[in-house]
Request: fold
Amino acid sequence: MNCRDVVVIGAGITGLSAAWELSRAGRDVVLIERADEVGGVIRSQRVPRVGVIDLGPQTVRSKDPALFQHLEDLGIADDRIVAGENGKARYIVWDGELVELPHSPGAFIASGLLSSRAKLRLLAEPFRGTRKGEDESVRKFFKRRLGKEVAERLVDPFVAGVYAGDPRQLSMEAVFPELKAGVDRSGSIVRWGLSRMRGGKGDRSKRAAELFSFPEGLAHWPRTIAEKLGEDRVWLGHKTVSARRIDDVWEIRTKVDGEVRTVHAKQVVLAVPANRVSKILKDARRSSTHALKDISYSPVATVHLAYRRESVTHPLDGFGYLCPSAAGRKVLGVLWISSLFPARVEDDRVLLTTFIGGARDPQRAYESEGHLIDIAYREHRRFLGASTPPAHAQVKLWKKGIPQYEFGHLERIAAADRLEEENPGLHLAGAYRWGVSVTDCWKGGRRVAEQVLQAEASDAPEAADAADASDRGAEAAGGAAAEHDEGVAVA
Reply:
C-alpha cells in the first residue's frame, strides 16, 4: 500500500499554506480540493473593459516579516502592488453623510464623529472596573469601557467590515482574546496599550503595515503556491467522501467524475469549513463533530459595479466606507477598488465593491442579483454621486462567508481539540479556529504544518524503540544488523 506522509483536504489559503510548508520540509504531501481551482474564497477574474475583479477578499494587510519572506520564496514578492495614500483615508456613514475616521490624536479631537461628551467619557476609561473571567459581547465590552457612541459609531462598523458580524452576538474572549486578557491584567485599555508600546521599544525589525494585492488579483498568490506544488500534488475536482483511521493509517476516499479514489496517509489535515468536518469524519465521536456544526457562518454577497469615471462625482479619495447598524443602510460597506489599485482598473473606469448581508442582515444576501445590483447602485448614487447605471455589474454570493465567533465559540474550539486527541494524526484548521482574515488563515496553515511535524517527531522515538526491540530479537536469531533498520524506522 502506497502511503503518503500527509493529505491536506481543502485548498483555501490555509490548506495551501500547510501543504507548502510541509512540502518544503520534505514531506510527501497531497492537497485535495473539490472545486476546479484553488484559493477557496480568494477568486480573481479579469473582465474586458473593466479590469481585475476580486470576488472575495480584496486586500491583504500585514507587517509580518514571515509573510513577506514567504512571498519571496514563491518568487512573487516583487509582483505585489501596494495601496498608496488613498488606502489611509477611511469613512463611515453618519447622519446621512460620509465622515472620515480620524487617524491621529489631533484629528480625533477635531472630528465631529463623536460628541464632546463622548470624548470626555474616554478619559474615564482607566477607572472602569474589570470583569475578570467573565465573557461579554464585543458591543457590551466597548460600550461599558468607552461609551455608547464609540461602540455604535466605531466598533460596530469595524466588526461589520472584518467579520460581517453582529457585535451584540460576538464573544469578546473569542474575537479579541489578547485585548480582553490585557485589560483583565492591567485594568484598562489605556494601561494595556501603554504596556504594549513599552514592550515594543527597541525592536527595529518591525516594518510598517502594508496593504497590498497583485496585478492579476489576490488569486495570484494561491495559484502560485499550487503551481509550485505541482499537478501531481494538487488534486482538483476531488470531493472528499470520508476520512477514517484504520490501524495506524488514515484512509481518505474521494469522488471524481463519478468514480471513487482512495489515498492513504500517516496524517491528515482538514482545512475545510467547520460544518464539513462531521461529513468527512463519519466515524468520529458525534459530541465533538456536532459542536463544530454549531459554528455559524454569515452569508455575504459581493456586488461589483464599474462606472465610467465621469459618471461618479465623488473623488473617491480613500479606502471606502462602512455603515454602522444605526445608520440603517442596506449594505455593510463599499470599497473603492479603483482608488486602492488604479493599475488594475481601466483608466476610464471606476470599480466599486459593495458588501451586503452578513450576520446583521443575512437574508438580504440571498436576494436576486438584479435586486442586489439595484441596492448597490442606489447606495452609490446617494453617497458617491453615481449619475448613470453601471457599465458592468457582477454579483457573487458566499453562502458560508465568514465564521462567527459568537458566545460559546471557545467551547466549540475545545471540542476541536478533543477531536484531534481522540483521532491521532488528525489536524483541524480554518478560519473558524485562529482568525478570519486572509493573513490569519495563512498563519493557521503554517501553524498546523508545524503541528504535523511535531506529531511526526513525537511518534519517531516510539517507532525507533519498537524497531530496536525487533532488531535485537532478530539479531539474537542470527538476523540482520539492528543499526541499519533502526535508521530506516526513524526516517
In short: The longest strand covers residues 259-270.
